[in-house]
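Re: that chain you flagged

S.,

Sorry for the slow reply, it's been a week of failed gels. I finally had a moment to sit down with the sequence you sent. For the record, here it is as I used it:
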Amino acid sequence: LAQLFSPENYGIATIFAMIMAIAEMTSQIGMHHLIVQDDAGDKPTFQASIQGFHMLRVSLTAVLMFMLAAPLANFMGVPEVDWAFQFLAIPRLLNAFTHFDFYRVQRRMSFKPIMQVQTMTSVAGLIVVFPLAWWYGDYRVMLYSILVQEFCRTSLTHIVAERRYRLAFDLQLLQRAVSFGWPLMINSTLLFFAYNGEKILVGRELGVQTLALFAMAFTLTSTPSLIQLRVLESFFLPELSACKKYPAAFNPLAYAVIQATMTSGLVTIATTNLVFIPLVSIVLGEEWIAMIPYLYWLSLTQALRDAKAISLVSIARDQTRADMFANLPRFLALPIFWWAAHSGVGVTGLIQISLVSEL
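Prediction finished late last night. Pasting the C-alpha cells below so you have them in one place:
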C-alpha cells in the first residue's frame, strides 16, 4: 500500500487500521486465552458459552463503531470519510461469529488450524490489494481489504473446526470470564491509547503525511515482534497452563519464557537495523526515507515491549493484572506526548518520550 499510494492516502488508510484496533483492544477480555488456560476449556458447553459471550460483546462494539464514526472522523481531521468509518462496523460484526475451535485445539499443542486461519486470511487480504488498487487507487483499498480479511478469517474458523458451531449463554461462566478478563480489557484499552493513541496524536498535530511515515516505521518495527510473540504465546501458554500446579515443571518453563522474550527484543532490533532500514529506500522510494531515524528509536522501544511478554507466566496462573500495570506508564505519558507534539517537538523526540515511558 505504501508503494502504491502517496503518503497522504496511506495515512488515511492507517487511520482505518487504527479504528479496527480500537474496536479490538477496548473490548478484548482474553477469551482466546481463557479457553486454553481454563481446566474446563475443552468442554463443549464451555466453548459454546465463550462463543455466545464473544458474539454479544463484539456485536455491541460494532454498533458503537457505527455510532461514533462521525465524531472520530472529525477528531482526526478527515470528516469527508466518515462513511468509511461507519463501513468498518461491517467487518467487526463478521468477527462476532468467530468459531473458537482453532483456539481450543491449542490445548493439545495443535497449531495447524490457527496457522491456516492466520496465513490464508493474510494472503487473501494481500491478493485483493492489487485489483482494488487498479480499480480505486486510493485509501478505499485498505477499507475493502479489511472487509475481505475479516470475511475470510471468520469463514476459515468454521471450516477448520472439529465441532459444530454452538452459542450458549451461561451467567456463571460470564462472571468467570469477566473476572478473568477485566484486567486484560483494561490492559487492551491502555495498549490502544499507548500505541494507537500516539499515532492519532501525531496525525492530529503533525498532519496525515507525517502520520504515514510514523505509522510505516511503527509497522516495520512491530512486525518481527508480532510474529515472534504470537509464536511464543501459542507455544508456551498451553505448556504453562498444563503444569501450573506443579512448580518443579512450571518454574523452568517460566525462566524459558523470560529468556525467549528478551531474545525476541534483540531479534527485533537486529531485523530493523540490518534488514528494514536498508530496504526502505530501495522498496518504498525517496518519499519514505525521512522515516529512517524513527526506525532506530522505535526498534529499541519495541524491544522493551517484547520483554514485557513475560506476563504469559502470570496469565497461565490466572493472574491477569501484570500487563495492565506494566502498560500504565506508557498510558500516563500520553499527555506529555500530546503536549510535546503540540509544542512542535519532532517525531524522533516523541518516540524518545515513548521509549522512556516503556522503560
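What I noticed first: The mean pLDDT is 84.

Talk soon,
D.
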